[in-house]
Amino acid sequence: MHAWPASEVPALPGKGRDLRIHDTATGGLVTLDPGPVARIYVCGITPYDATHMGHAATYNAFDLVQRVWLDTKRQVHYVQNVTDVDDPLLERAVRDGIEWEGLAERETALFREDMTALRMLPPQHYIGAVEAIPGIVPLVERLRDSGAAYELEGDTYFSVEADPHFGSVSNLDAAAMRLLSAERGGDPDRPGKKNPLDPMLWMAARDGEPSWDGGSLGQGRPGWHIECVAIALDHLGMGFDVQGGGSDLAFPHHEMGASHAQALTGEFPMAKAYVHAGMVGLDGEKMSKSKGNLVFVSALRRDGVDPAAIRLALLAHHYRSDWEWTDQVLADAVARLDRWRAAVSRPDGPSAEALVDEIREALADDLDAPTALIAVDRWAEAQSAGGGTDEGAPGVVSRAVDALLGVAL
Questions:
Q1: pTM of the predicted model as reported, rounded to 2 decimal places
Q2: What structural domains does the chain harbor?
């Protein structure tokens, strides 16, 4: 599966700072010090509907992580999956009377278009669950053969007891885990499981649903969590720098994935930091496909909204915060974009050296994009007041905003 084209990242003078970021597992800020190549895995979409603002906010956060790393003169090895076979996708295809493969292909293509328009840097490896199945099956067989998995009525489950570190990502108690498991794709009430929290690794073939050859596992399809584990281990290995996604993935998805990988390898941890973006709401509720309260990136683009304004609307909120999308949020972003473009269109202005340093400092401090935006606002205000005669300043600002914030002026 191919990703989307990369926008050019302008080179800036000097060098950025190492990133301090909030790690869900420890509950505090950690300073990341990757080697020459920083490794990041971000969980991708289940392509049964278009990219909404919650998706965009999440991918914007991890795009900033990449930009901070690139500014430290590191390379970035970024991997993202596409869950192109799963219950929600199959259910939507049945509802709409279309083939599930066509639905997945259509929505993945639209996602690529949205990411390109928003100038999100693409992953080096963009892997669909279906194409990963040949690598998933041997991992499930290894877990079963080691006693870390068991069969129940043809399905194969992972035993959470097999990982002594289970629970160390989300740090939730058993009661909270059970509630979230039921809400987020698990089946804690299924009779016969060793532990209600045990997640499915391989689902035996069901009538009317797609299935693949699972070797000794029989015909079926993979569970959600093992999909990402197989892709991450194949392309990044254990101990990669950041596992990223929305805050609703901390449990069960990232918790279970970490346990799968740790049971497979005997190593800990799977990732050095588990980083989670907040939820975007609309009309007082989390924006989600199940609720249908969605604002789509593609719909805004069709209405003529500049993607740079959409990106500024996302950047105006700290990535870990939960916030609500409103017409005013977009209007403020459009006005900000107009002010910034007017400012950099002038032939000279105040020195930009301090501003570049402020943007770098803000982003290195847990991706504090709102503070970075306020710094650019101050420079634009001074520019509009006629302050400064540095002929190179507008160009420096334009390149810095592009390189570090992903906004083309």
A1: 0.96
A2: 20-286 (3.40.50.620), 304-405 (1.20.120.640)
